[in-house]
Amino acid sequence: MHTGFQGFKDNACMRLIKSFGYAIAGIAVAVKTERNLKIHLVFATIAIGFSFFFSISKTEWLFILFLIGGMISLELLNTAIERAVNLVTEEVHPLAKQAKDIAAGAVFIFACLSVVTGLIIFLPRLAKWVGL
Ligand SMILES: Nc1ncnc2c1ncn2[C@@H]1O[C@H](COP(=O)(O)OP(=O)(O)OP(=O)(O)O)[C@@H](O)[C@H]1O
């Protein structure tokens, strides 16, 4: 058992490791139970495959990686909001509807941004590849 600064450091380190564990458990349960998240992961895999296939630039890679990370993070937050709302009420309530729809709106905006960016990066390359 450590005391003083060493004890504090060990404690802080354990708390950090525990919180990583909780975050990973949250991601795992969401991936297991949310169909939309599985769809995002499939699209992310396709986007990464295309990125390697077309040897995109470093800047394009940054866009792709940030959009994938952002999309998955937002979907996780959306799932958390849906579950929190369901925990508060299973009754039909206008505020429950608004909370879920607004969270879904955030995901939708980011998804549109991702699709447009994907098209800007891949469409010209795909067109060239098929000989158009
Ligand atoms: N308690 C509620 N009161 C009023 N409307 C609700 C309530 N719960 C859900 N809704 C409405 O029904 C829609 C579908 O809700 P649901 O909980 O099935 O989530 P979802 O949007 O289908 O998400 P997912 O498919 O990711 O689970 C919501 O977007 C919302 O418009």
Automatic annotation (TrEMBL):
Signal peptide: none annotated. GO terms for cellular component: plasma membrane. InterPro entries: DAGK, DAGK_sf, UDPK. It is a multi-pass membrane protein. Pfam families: DAGK_prokar (PF01219). ATP binds at residues 15, 22, 34, 82, 91-93, 100-101. Gene3D superfamilies: 1.10.287.3610. GO terms for molecular function: ATP binding; kinase activity; metal ion binding. The chain crosses the membrane at residues 37-54, 61-81, 101-123. GO terms for biological process: phospholipid biosynthetic process. It is found in: Cell membrane. A divalent metal cation binds at residues 34, 82. Its cofactor is Mg(2+). It comes from the Bacteria. Substrate binds at residues 15, 75. Keywords: ATP-binding, Cell membrane, Kinase, Lipid biosynthesis, Lipid metabolism, Magnesium, Membrane, Metal-binding, Nucleotide-binding, Phospholipid biosynthesis, Phospholipid metabolism, Transferase, Transmembrane, Transmembrane helix. Mn(2+), Zn(2+), Cd(2+) and Co(2+) support activity to lesser extents. The active site is at 75 (proton acceptor). PANTHER family: DIACYLGLYCEROL KINASE. Belongs to the bacterial diacylglycerol kinase family. This is Diacylglycerol kinase family protein. It comes from Neobacillus notoginsengisoli.
